[in-house]
């Protein structure tokens, strides 16, 4: 006897599906919530309650600090400009000198003789010029009377021109010899303090041999290494100060920054002017300043997509529903306060309920 053929399977009717969806755990089969993903924008429903505060109340101004050191604006190795024997020292280590003050003297005897030779050569050239000038005048008279030819007259004029050039050369040689003689007296190029003496009395030195190390005083600057963001920030503050290790405090003002970044640290070198009594070069301490822009506390930051930022509430005018707007903060970092570079002081920042919001969502704000 043939067995009955089973009825073909058919799709469940609509009421069956509805019944299945009502079973316990059915929601887990139809949706998988990702805790790291912001909630999907609701299409309808009541506005979300949030708490807001003005940025001027919630914002903070972090204190910045960086190691810094007082450096001399000029530190020169004062060298001999001519060869000679060190005859006498006029300054030693620790001596404070003014600009142009004598530091040392070299034996001038050889240079004095060179000046005498140059002066004698100049005098001889002058005498020869005067003789040729007289001969040239006489030649012009004789040519006018027809006693000498034009060629002979031109020869006299040429000799006179050559002698004038010879005299100019002799005068330049004399000036050079006198200048070399003056260089046997070594002078300070600026006011400062002698920190090293590098040659001894009686020692023969060549031109270019360092004799002293001179550190300029009265124009010291502060040097520090900062990140590009810190450099931009420091340029906007007016309350920067330097606290030296010995307790001295001076107001500081940014002068200039090296545009290039250091290869290893990616930092910029900056120089600052110090106000008040000068500090000695080499003094170390800490440069401190307060961030000029308000910063949003780290606990108020939320991530949407690849950006970190805050939610602010906008609207709530007549006939207008308040909505949350996400504002990305370009310099924000996880766990650190972020500069509110694009927010006004009266912006209403969401301080509670921000983690469940999406951009444009309707909200019911309450202030505290």
TrEMBL record:
Q: Does the keyword Signal apply?
A: yes
Looking at the record's lineage, which domain of life comes first?
Answer: Bacteria
Organism for this UniProt entry:
Tepidimonas aquatica
Q: What is this protein called?
A: Macrolide export protein MacA
GO MF terms on file?
A: efflux transmembrane transporter activity
**One GO cellular component, as annotated:** efflux pump complex
Q: Which UniProt keywords apply?
A: Coiled coil, Signal
Question: What protein family is recorded?
Answer: Belongs to the membrane fusion protein (MFP) (TC 8.A.1) family.
Q: Where is this region: Disordered?
A: 31-55
Signal peptide residues are 1-33
Q: Which parts of the chain are coiled coil? A: 115-180
**Pfam family example for this protein?**
BSH_RND
InterPro entries per UniProt: MdtA-like_BSH (IPR058625), RND_pump_MFP (IPR006143)
Residue ranges annotated for the Multidrug resistance protein MdtA-like barrel-sandwich hybrid domain, each copy included:
75-216
